[in-house]
Design brief:
Mean pLDDT: 91
Distance between the termini: 39 Å
Shape: globular
Largest sheet: 7 strands, parallel
Strand order of the largest sheet: 3-2-1-4-5-6-7
Number of strands: 9
Helix content: 40-55%
Low-confidence stretches: 252-256
Strand content: 5-15%
Number of helices: 13
Radius of gyration: 19 Å
């Protein structure tokens, strides 16, 4: 059986239509949402780890969760910037509420060893983890293809491989925090993405590399991996896996998109969300009480994909390609190989067996 080599024209055009539709109508579609999104009062034992939290929507997610009372761990490469933000937030709230329960831990997603060290350090605390928000991501506009120290294309590593490794290695803490959640920040651009499990780094010459190819493929791989993880976790583990679309947030990404999309952006400049608006879907997925039941229903119905929450804070469908279960399992197997874990690591963990990671972390 010949493997698919890329998206067909109809699939690509359908994806472009979906992307343009969201870009131009997202403000109309989210008129029902308040900004900022009202959050329930969270217990100080409600621990959340947020990656990529020193700017953009990640910064808003961390701040709002902390102000709602949660214990927030800012997983950041630039720890000085993260600590500076905490001081600013504490100063701004001085005398208005209790001090924020927030801390910083170093995490560099361009190094899988750093990911493993972070997970080892966190799991050693034996503290229940309620929410992991994999927000950090890159879209290197107009730059040549870059390879990480681990030998992987940087979009694929930062947007998919490193969050996948982090999610798996933190399962012990998430199990302690049950009911808990893994929230992966996706992108509407995954609708025009394609993943070749035999060429996830886009380095073999089968396809021409562009930043858009790297980014869209990494975001699709993230959704596919999340769907298989969702299926692999038994219901009794109490861990929900959710992908969310933040909408089109203020950024300069448009230079790498097609001409027609760029024209649409220039004609409709009001379309862009602020980081605060873009954080709403992730905050909803992290705190809404109905999310665990919704995930259980998808599991019991044997739905092919994990929960996917739109920028409207409503369930929606990821791309047609994301529904391809055979490809999703191929992506899972290849991803586990790339991040140095046996493909049955989740099963071993649930059964309490020992497993090891090539990058240094081991659990039992």
């Amino acid at each position: 059986m010949n493997k698919k080599k890329g998206l067909g024209w109809t699939e690509w055009l359908r994806g472009c239509f979906y992307l343009i539709h969201e870009m131009l109508l997202q403000r109309i579609m989210t008129r029902h949402l308040e900004n900022p999104l009202p959050l329930p009062r969270l217990d100080r034992d409600f621990t959340c780890i947020v990656t990529g939290c020193t700017n953009g929507i990640g910064r808003e997610i961390a701040r709002q969760l902390a102000e709602a009372g949660a214990h927030v761990v800012m997983a950041a490469r630039d720890t000085a910037s993260a600590n500076g933000l905490i001081k600013k937030w504490q100063h701004d709230l001085s005398g208005k509420s209790l001090p924020l329960n927030i801390e910083v831990m170093e995490l560099n997603l361009l190094s899988l060893k750093s990911v493993a060290r972070f997970a080892e350090a966190w799991n050693a605390r034996s503290v229940p983890l309620r929410v992991l928000i994999n927000n950090a991501g890159i879209f290197s506009i107009g730059e040549p293809q870059k390879i990480s120290v681990d030998g992987f294309e940087e979009h694929m590593q930062v947007n998919h491989l490193a969050p996948a490794l982090l999610s798996i290695l933190l399962l012990p803490s998430l199990k302690r925090g049950s009911p808990s959640r893994i929230v992966n920040i996706s992108s509407t651009i995954h609708h025009i993405g394609f993943v070749d499990p035999d060429d996830m780094n886009v380095m073999t010459g089968k396809r021409k590399y562009t930043n858009l190819v790297g980014y869209s493929g990494s975001k699709l791989a993230q959704v596919m991996f999340s769907s298989v993880l969702h299926k692999s976790l038994p219901a009794e583990a109490g861990i929900s896996v959710v992908c969310v679309s933040p909408g089109v947030v203020q950024t300069n990404f448009a230079r790498d998109l097609s001409k027609i999309v760029q024209v649409g952006i220039r004609l409709f400049p009001y379309y862009k969300f602020s980081p605060e608006e873009g954080s709403r879907s992730a905050l909803f997925a992290a705190t809404d009480p109905q999310i665990p039941e919704y995930c259980k229903k998808l599991k019991s119905d044997e739905w092919p994909v994990c929960a996917f929450i739109s920028h409207e804070c409503r369930p929606t469908n990821p791309s047609e390609e994301a529904h391809n279960l055979e490809s999703s399992y191929d992506v899972w197997e290849k991803t586990m190989e790339m991040i140095g874990l046996p493909s049955n690591t989740v099963e071993k963990l649930i059964e309490g067996q020992q497993f090891e990671c090539r990058y240094g972390s081991h659990q039992e």
